[in-house]
Amino acid sequence: MNVTCLTFNPFQENTYLLHDDTKECVVVDPGCYELAEQQELKRYIESNDLKVVRLLNTHCHIDHVLGNKFVADTYGVELEIHEEDLQTLRSVPIYAPNYGFQLYSGIEASTKYLKEGDTIKFGNTELQILFAPGHAPGHVVFYSEPDKVCIGGDVLFKGSIGRTDLPGGDFDTLINSIRTKLFTLPDDTVVYPGHGPETTIAYEKKYNPFLR
Questions:
Q1: What is the CA 176 to chain-centroid distance, rounded?
Q2: Within a domain: residue 89?
């Protein structure tokens, strides 16, 4: 599985494109809001001859959902989220103007919700869904065991963790999610977070000040 990161919007959010040799592609957390950002995403997909087959959100805070409608409309895919984050998604249009996103237009999620224990399949790739709340009530991460890759959203960062002061956030719940869901993955698993550079499970076990 190939992992491509495109960083968008004032929050410097990492949008991920996952694809394999079949050219089928999954878009995770599209943060593209400005026209130039949308064009950058589309240009990458076209130049690599990719076929977008799924649209996933790890969670539904504003910086991770700004491009949902663009991706859904452009590629004819439905938005897939965990049901516990539905209210998080529906609240975005209410506060988006306060952050300067006057033109934000949201979409409803599919009622085929992401659930822990299920798998995301595309091309020759399978991703495990792990439920990891604490930063957001319906936060999930996506793990490829053969590739030892985790698309982690805002759960775990290099040397840090997701904030827990937003609605539905809880510090103890987040720490528990990291310890029971992410830290049980192999040490050499690469974690691709929603912001900033990638890290590894081994590095965070050793150096993360929140988890010593």
A1: 19
A2: yes
Identify whether 71 is part of a domain.
Answer: yes
Give CB contacts under 8 A, 24+ apart, made by 44-51: 44/4, 44/6, 44/17, 45/17, 48/19, 48/23, 49/23, 50/17, 50/19, 50/23, 50/24, 50/25, 51/23, 51/24, 51/25
Domains contained in the chain, number: 1
Token pair for 81: 């989220």
Cβ-Cβ contacts under 8 Å for 172 (sequence gap 6 or more): 134
CA distance 66 to 156: 21
212 occurs within a structural domain: no
* Cα-based distances in Å from 39 to 42, 50, 54, 71, 151: 5, 15, 19, 11, 23
Is residue 41 within 8 Å of 74, Cβ to Cβ? Answer: no
CATH of the domain at 176: 3.60.15.10
- Alpha helix stretches (DSSP H) within 12-170: 35-47, 62-65, 68-75, 86-95
| Residue carrying structure tokens 């300067």 | 100
* 43-72 pLDDT per residue, tens: 999 999 999 999 999 999 999 999 999 999
Query: How many whole angstroms separate alpha carbon 65 and alpha carbon 60?
Result: 6
pTM over 0.85: yes
Q: Say if CB 60 and CB 89 are below 8 A apart.
A: yes
Q: Which domain holds residue 57?
A: 2-207
Does residue 7 fall inside a structural domain?
yes
